[in-house]
Structures are given as structure tokens and as C-alpha cells.
Amino acid sequence: MGKAKAERRLKENEAMAVARSLRVSPQKLNLVAAMIRGKKVERALAELEFSRKRISDQVRKTLESAIANAENNHDLDVDTLVVAEAYVGKSLVMKRFQARGRGRASRIEKPFAHLTIVVREAEETEKAA
Fold first, then answer.
1. How far is CA 77 from CA 1, 4, 48, 66, 74, in A?
2. pLDDT digits (tens, 9 = 90+) for 60-104
3. Fewest CB within 10 angstroms: 15, 43, 52, 94, which?
4. Strand ranges inside 23-104, DSSP E
């Protein structure tokens, strides 16, 4: 028997990839995600390749995964793909303590974040623009 197949959350011309528990603060990850939002995928890949941010390598891998999902799972044309959405969510925060002077201690927070990238096949009107 089993469960009924869940309905697809995305449109027919979209594909998604998610990277979970990336060891970076959501605020820093959002700076890199904002850099690629709304751009064509080849332009976004080029910008991530030469970005000096540490996390840009994992963002690039996630974008490549979304492109591969679009091509292999949904038969979308890779040359017309655009980064439709790139959003960041909070994950867990590890709390650590560091010894300080005069017998005191300070709390160090080590945040994690989730990254979701949705690529969309651009329509004819978007390509002309």
C-alpha cells in the first residue's frame, strides 16, 4: 500500500538543491547567496569561483547540484537556467566556553546554516532582457 506520492512543491520548469548544516553563520552565508540571486547560472558559477569568501566553494557545489537536478531529473535546458531563489535558514548553534582572564569564562557560539537554491528555466521574454 504505502503513502500516496507527495505533490511536487516546485513548478515544472524549476529544480532545487539544499545544503544542510553548513558551518557558517546565516548572516555571512546570506551575503554570498545575495551575490548570485537572479543571475544566469554560468555567471553565478563564475562569480562563486573567484569569490574570496570561504563558504563560496560550498555554495558553488550546491548550485552545481541544482543544475544537475534540473538537467537529469527534470529535463531542463542548462543554457537557459537562472538562479530564481537562493535563501538561507538557521540551523543549530554549538555553544562553547573559552577561558578568559581572572578566572572567568566567555561563551563562544558556533552557528550552522542551511542553504536552498532554486533554479528556473527562463522564458523567452526573460532571455531577451
1. 36, 30, 21, 13, 9
2. 999 999 999 999 999 999 999 999 999 999 999 999 999 999 999
3. 52
4. 81-99
Q: Residue 129 above 90 pLDDT?
A: no
CA distance 27 to 4: 38
Computed over its alpha carbons, how large is the radius of gyration of the chain? 19
Domain spanning 14-123, CATH architecture: Alpha-Beta Complex (3.90)
Cα–Cα distance between 25 and 109 in angstroms, integer? 10
What are the residue boundaries of the structural domains of the chain, listed by start?
14-123
Q: Which residue has the cell 537529469?
A: 72
